[in-house]
Amino acid sequence: MKVCFNFFIKLAKNIGDEKFTFNLRFRHLYNVYSSKAESYEARD
After folding, report:
1. Is 5 in contact with 13 (CB distance < 8 Å)?
2. Organism's domain of life (predicted)?
3. 24, 29, 28: which is closest to 5 by C-alpha?
4. CA 34 to chain centre
């Protein structure tokens, strides 16, 4: 969890003021994570 948090802080710093781009990327990453989580649950 901590690694993920640090990753997002680093991502936010790299993007800087481009909040719109950050929101799009965050949403994309969230969607990817959600779909992976669902596929893991489906495997069980």
Report:
1. no
2. Bacteria
3. 29
4. 10
Q: Cα 22 to chain center, whole Å?
A: 10
What is the SS3 assignment for 24?
A: helix
C-beta atoms surrounding 2 within 10 Å: 6
pLDDT digits 0-9 by tens, 18-43: 666 777 888 888 888 888 877 777 76
Distance CA 40, CA 44 (A): 7
Give the start-to-end residue ranges of the domains of the chain. 2-43
For residue 36 the two structure tokens come to: 């992976």
